Amino acid sequence: MVKMRLQRKGRKKKPFYHIVIADARAKRDGRYIERIGSYNPMTKPATIELDRNKAYEWLLKGAQPTDTVRAILRFKGVLYRKHLMKGVAKGAMTEEQAIAKYNAWIESKDAKVAERVEESARELAAWHAARNGTPPPVVVEEVVEEAAEEVATEEAPVAEAPAEEAAPADDNAEG
Hints:
Layout: E1 2-11, E2 14-23, E3 34-40, E4 47-50, H1 52-61, E5 64-65, H2 67-76, H3 78-90, H4 95-132, H5 140-174
Parallel strand pairs: 1-5
Antiparallel strand pairs: 1-2, 2-3, 3-4
């Protein structure tokens, strides 16, 4: 039986995995048929590089993914593509419709992942800024809102300020 599984690389407490197609009887880190990607769980979010076409072809050939690889294939959309192609085979939709759905799903998923990467980078920058003793970078929208609030608070007291300042000035002159 052929399996899609992870092959551990990296050093102690710093794992890095290759996603490989291997004979089920082969050792975990032993001989494999083909390498189709990599998985790094140490980054935030985890970095997954996968050749989706090769993974899809191996699924069609009957390769059985392990639980972790199945989760990776689901995350990357390979299992969704297989699901859509079953619908095409049954006549539920055309191949063009299935490809359009798949591409739209991939684009939205990539956008979500990019958003997570940016959020993680902002968190890391804020952590470094706090660690170094400098304030975290301020978002432009917050600066605009604060400036608008300052202008609004400054305009109201300006009209009242001359009357109030005149009275204490007279008290100081007398005293």
